[in-house]
Design brief:
This protein has about 150 residues and is mostly helical. The protein contains five helices and two strands, in the order H-H-E-H-H-H-E. The protein has one domain: Cytochrome c/b562 (Four Helix Bundle (Hemerythrin (Met), subunit A), Up-down Bundle). The mean pLDDT is about 90. The structure holds heme C.
Length: about 150
């Protein structure tokens, strides 16, 4: 009666590993979606679709700071090649070109810090958002895959 127990245990371990991978993927997508939503709030003010509001700026930048803190561990190796049912997924380059990926994290982290230090009104918001947007796009260009 020992063997069935072991088999069940191995199966459970296997399932645990799969769900940990899915959790990591979901987590990365949740963090990036929040990043997109909060960057969108800043862009809406730049475009004049929403009035300038310092509280919204502060809240959005706090989320982006959180993203910068999470990015270094957001994409664990176990996620590599994992199929995503979402529109976007991480390119294998995230792990294959790790040094380059980390350089993009550093650029993004600096853009967020610069934005936080400089944005006080609509003019400084308009001045800071392009560099911020460039740091998102610079990473996505190489490291994000859109479903075709
Ligand atoms: C260091 C790299 C990097 C930076 C910087 C970065 N992203 Fe991403 N982003 C990714 C990767 C990789 C994915 C694909 C994996 C995923 O969807 O989570 C992604 C996915 C996304 C998605 C799609 C989420 C989904 O699953 O639907 C959005 C939206 C997004 N990013 C917004 C942003 C915005 C806005 C910024 C800048 C303020 C930003 N990202 C900065 C790497 C980055």
């Amino acid at each position: 009666m020992i063997r069935p127990v072991i088999v069940a245990g191995v199966l459970l371990l296997g399932l645990g590993a799969v769900s940990a991978q899915q959790d990591a993927l979901k987590n990365a997508q949740t963090v990036m979606k929040a990043t997109g939503k909060n960057t969108g709030a800043l862009v809406a003010m730049v475009k004049g679709e929403k009035p300038y509001d310092q509280a919204t700026v502060d809240a959005s930048l706090a989320v982006l700071e959180e993203t910068a803190r999470k990015l270094p561990t957001l994409f664990p190796e176990s996620m590599k090649g994992q199929p995503s049912d979402d529109d976007y997924s991480a390119s294998p380059k995230v792990w294959d070109n790790k040094a380059d990926f980390d350089a993009h994290i550093a650029t993004f982290t600096k853009a967020v810090a610069d934005a936080k230090a400089s944005i006080k009104n609509i003019d400084t918001l308009k001045a800071a958002v392009p560099a911020l947007g460039k740091s998102c796009g610079g990473c996505h260009e190489t490291f994000r895959i859109k479903k075709g």
